[in-house]
Amino acid sequence: MPHRICVYCAASQRVAARYLQLAEQVGVRLAQAGYELIYGGGDVGLMGALARSVHRHGGRVVGVIPEALQEREGIAYELADALIVTQTLQERKAIMFTRADAFLVLPGGFGTLEEFMEVLTLRQLGYHHKPIVLLNYDGFFDLLLQFFAHLRRQHFVPARWPFTVASALDEAFALLERSLSSSADFSTG
Question: Rounded to two decimals, what is the model's pTM?
Fold first, then answer.
């Protein structure tokens, strides 16, 4: 069975083209590596670019979307190999979490950050040991990482972060591959 990578990313259509291109490149790499994509089920923004790219390159796409979002015309990626429709956002996140072997966080807004923070917190508390890779593409997450460093200096978070930061796509996939092929604890900080 192929590894399943949950990707959190933006649904915004108004982002710069470089972010959409990044999502397309991630889709290529997921498909080439034989990973199954688990994601929020959208056909817009980075979500849509990602899912379409995975399909174009022969990969499998599993979308998980709340019914209220699916009902909005053009939001859901109806061509997904499996499109799971949930009643709530909480149910959506739980299904994505349960199905995933690892998490990859791309640029995004409040929803992406909220999903990242949830799996990060669950890992810190020991509810899972699945790898989490934050792709700090073009310094997108620099300010967030500075804030996390501030939290560490003030002793609000542990010295060792329960996720890994990659600054480039190759690095992100190398971290995923290494973590999925070994049982070693993979968190750094």
Answer: 0.94
